[in-house]
Amino acid sequence: MELLRSPVPALQETLYALEAQAHALAGHDFLLTSPQQVSVVLYTELGLKAPSAPSSKKKTSTNTGEKALQELSRQHPLPAVILQHREIKKLRTTYIDPFCSLAADSQDGRLHSSFLQLATVTGRLASCNPNLQNLPRGPCVVPPVHAADGTEVREGFTINIRQAVRASEGCVFVASDFCQLEVRILAHFCRDPTLIGLLSSDGDTFRLLYSRWRNIPVAAVSDSDRARAKQCIYGVIYGMGPDELAQRLSIPRQQALGLMKDFRQRFPVIETWRQSTLRLSRQANACHTLFRRRRHLPNLHSTVGSDRAQAERMAVNGVIQGTASDIMKQAMVQADKGISQLLERLREAAPGGTCQCVLQVHDELVYEVSEGWAAAVARELSAAMEGCVPLEAPLRVSTTIGRSLGDLR
């Protein structure tokens, strides 16, 4: 935990400096952690124009969320300072302080998360004390601190929380992550031959998807084109509307609406399945996973339009996400069986090693393994996960080995 303890004084110094900078920009002291005070400063005192949020139930004039502050940063420097303060505050209060405290209280000085089987509506496992399923993906940037005259007092630096979560001495992490699991489940349910063919090939799924969608060579597909294909197909899964798609792709709403309409016309089998799923869910007042696990959805017949629309999104998403949860649990069972048999053989040749599943994150399983066994366990884990459930679009996994969680991606 020394990687997390050492930057604490510098983080606190940065928080003080950002508070002083924010107070100077506002012209008086205020509490940066109070949404109400922040709203008064930004909208009433500074007179910033509220960002549009046509689908939001909240009043835009009091919106101080992350997306709103990002938009307001174009009008004034204060919102960007508040965002930096929030990010560093969260870094310390959500990760660094709790992790150090929990490690200090444990007998071996390591983190031991708890996993809850009934905490999510989709059936996925949830991690707590600490939550290791929601760690920042990349390094968090801590800005430099400047004196009143502008002189740099301390240079900026980065903190990578994942690098601090390390395997024990002599061990490494072996992680296998399902590739495009939800898209493969969608392909299995809708039986779209085009989508199944793309997922069965070895290329970049979303580049291939855009290539087929627009009928252009794969080599001509840009990164932004790939992003559009990815967001459109996940939009089907998550019930994304044109406002959210426009925001994710940073394009006008009308353009997002056109993209969604064009995507549905090009892949009509997907839309047919979606409508069929909604019809069956309304009849049953529930949705069902591939393994017939049921999720009750009484609001499918609500007279309140917003409640009914939300239930419809849950019906489609529940089938996909619920099946993903079921597949992951099947994978855990199959991996345990296969690796247990492998360990019997490994211990005969080299006794004294260790191997245990320590983390399940979304579509990924992470094992802590003696370094000499890592390659064999990686092969067995990959085979067990890919073969756990037969789908029309075969399951694929990506497996990596590293000393810390930060080394795995």
Label the structural class: alpha+beta
- Looking at the structure, the CATH topology of the domain at 182-325 is DNA polymerase, domain 1
State mean pLDDT (0 to 100 scale). Answer: 91
Terminal residue distance: 21 Å
Please write the CATH class name of the domain at 182-325: Mainly Alpha
| Fraction of residues in β-strands | 5-15%
Please count the beta strands (DSSP E, at least 2 residues each): 12
CATH level-two architecture of the domain at 182-325: Orthogonal Bundle
User: What is the helix fraction of residues, given as a range?
Assistant: 40-55%
What composes the largest sheet?
Answer: 4 strands, antiparallel
Shape: globular
Radius of gyration: 24 Å
Number of helices: 15
CATH H-level homologous superfamily name of the domain at 182-325: 5' to 3' exonuclease, C-terminal subdomain
As laid out across the biggest beta sheet, the strand order is 10-11-7-12
Q: Uncertain runs with pLDDT below 50, 5 residues or more? A: 54-60
The run of helices and strands is HHHHHEEEEEEHEHHHHHHHEEHEEHE
Detailed description of the structure:
This protein has 409 residues and is an alpha+beta fold. Among the domains are: 130 residues, Up-down Bundle (Taq DNA Polymerase, Chain T, domain 4), CATH 1.20.1060.10; 144 residues, 5' to 3' exonuclease, C-terminal subdomain (DNA polymerase, domain 1, Orthogonal Bundle). 52% of the residues lie in helices and 12% in strands. The protein has 15 helices and twelve strands. A four-stranded antiparallel beta sheet has the order 10-11-7-12, covered by helices on one side. Strands 1-2 form a two-stranded antiparallel sheet. A hairpin with a 5-residue loop joins strand 8 and strand 9. The protein starts with a helix and ends in a 7-residue tail after the last strand.
